[in-house]
Each structure stands twice: as C-alpha cells, then as structure tokens.
Design a protein that fits this description.
Blueprint (H helix, E strand, L loop, with lengths): L2 H16 L8 H18 L3 E8 L2 E2 L5 E2 L3 E9 L4 E9 L2 E2 L6 E4 L5 H12 E11 L2 E10 L8 H6 L2 E8 L4 E9 L3 E3 L5 E3 L4 E10 L2 E15 L3 E16 L2
Antiparallel strand pairs: 1-4, 1-16, 2-3, 4-5, 5-6, 5-7, 8-9, 9-10, 10-11, 11-14, 12-13, 13-15, 14-15, 15-16
Helix pairs in contact: 2-3
C-alpha cells in the first residue's frame, strides 16, 4: 500500500470515527416546527422597516444582463403592514435626496401560512445529516421537487424547479441557509421575455433579527439563459436586506 493510499484511508477512518453519533430529530415534528417559524417570519416581516440593497439588471443591446446600478431602497410598512412604501435613498454609494416613495400593497390573508404550505407541498424533503454552521448545530435537509404537484402560488411554481439543501438551526428550528440549483429551465414572461437554463443557482441566508424572529438577509442568484427568445443572458444578481427596525 502506497503512502498516499494509507493517508486517504486514515483520513476516511478518522472521519467515520468522529462523525456525530447523536440521533437526528424525528422528521415530522421537526418539519412542522420549521414551517410554523417560516410562516411567522412571512407575516412578521411586514411589521419591520428595513433597507434593501439590490443590483439592478440591465439588458444591453448584446443581450447581456449586467450589474447595472447598485441601489439602496428604504422599505417602510404603513397602515399596520397592509402596504409598504419603497423610497430610493442611495445610488452607487451616493445619497439620493427627494426621491418620491412608491406604495405597494401586501397580500395579508394567511399570507405566510399559504405560501409556506404551498412551497412545502412542492418538495420531497429528507433529513440528511447534522453539521456545524456559524458555530451552531444545523440539520441539513435535502429537497427535490414533486413532479405531480400543482402549485397555487408564485413561490410554489418557482420552488418546483429546484433541488438542493436546506440548513436548519437545530435548536431554533429556523432555516439559516438554502442552497438550490435549478433542475429545469425557468421561464418568465411566458417564455417570451426570457428563459433561464437549468443549473442556475440560488443561495439564501437568514439570521436572528429580533427576539425569536429570523428574517432573510441576503440572496445570491447566478445563471445563464436566453432573453427575448434569441439573446444569451447571464445573471449575477444580489440582494441584501439590513437595518431591520420594528415599527409600532
């Protein structure tokens, strides 16, 4: 046996010996708690003001979607969370003064629960293993789409095109990270405006923001496809949410 083979064998044996031997949580109550927390997050986010930093996507004459302007938008709930105002406050690192706010209605009726339930119905999820993440124990869950599922929401239709891993804080029963990869082409504008090819990747991160409440803090999207039926497009898209403040 060569030295290289002996080293690899020893490393594998060490990995097996040090693997966490604690039993994994029972799936059903674990998933029920995670879904309840996600629904709460969906509803409670409308009670917070926050800032949103996003990279706008600009389609140039060559069909490439580039970085465009980096904008910071102040988002503020109004009328008890029934709507939000969005106001541009910064462009490419420079303050914007006097930008008029726009208003966006928020769908309220059991919004969080209906979205989470619809997404969950689109996916086959399985507890895979335990692993450390950000200094805490996380349960890693794999997911694949159910081909025969019928989505009722925009989020459900999107979820049905992805597979990947979900990292869940074991103690808090909160989703910390989602790593997803498109396994089908994804169309928008009924396929006329554009189509993203399979292999596109999405990473979402969430953090503890308020007492017992976790909210999204970032999303990263990378993919290639076709825009306007013919032109090749490339997306490297990022959104960050920060400076959350509860509004009374």
């Amino acid at each position: 046996m060569t030295l290289a083979v002996r080293l690899v064998t020893a490393a594998l044996l060490l990995q097996i010996a040090t693997r966490d031997a604690r039993p994994l949580p029972a799936p059903q109550p674990f998933f029920d708690a995670v879904r309840a927390n996600l629904a709460k997050s969906q509803d409670e986010q409308n009670r917070f003001s926050y800032k949103e930093r996003r990279t706008e996507l600009d389609l140039n004459p060559f069909g490439h979607i580039g970085t465009g302007e980096v904008r910071v938008i102040a988002v503020t709930p109004v009328e008890g969370g029934k709507a939000v105002t969005r106001q541009l406050i910064e462009r490419d690192g420079k303050p914007v003064v006097g930008s008029p706010p726009s208003r966006r209605e928020v769908r309220m009726t059991e919004r969080g629960k209906s979205v989470v339930d619809d997404v969950a119905a689109m996916l086959d999820v399985k507890i895979d293993h335990r692993a450390p993440l950000d200094g805490r124990d996380a349960i890693v869950v794999t997911f694949t789409p159910k081909r025969d599922a019928s989505p009722r929401t925009r989020e459900g239709r999107l979820a049905r095109g992805f597979a990947g891993e979900i990292w869940i804080d074991e103690q808090a029963r909160e989703v910390v990270k989602v790593d997803a990869r498109a396994i089908d082409d994804l169309s928008f504008g009924y396929g006329v405006l554009g189509r993203l090819h399979d292999g596109a990747t999405v990473t979402v991160r969430r953090q503890l923001i308020d007492a017992g409440l976790w909210l999204p803090v970032s999303i990263r999207f990378n993919g290639e496809g076709r825009a306007l039926l013919f032109r090749k497009l490339t997306i490297n898209f990022a959104v960050d949410w920060f400076d959350y403040r509860r509004v009374s």
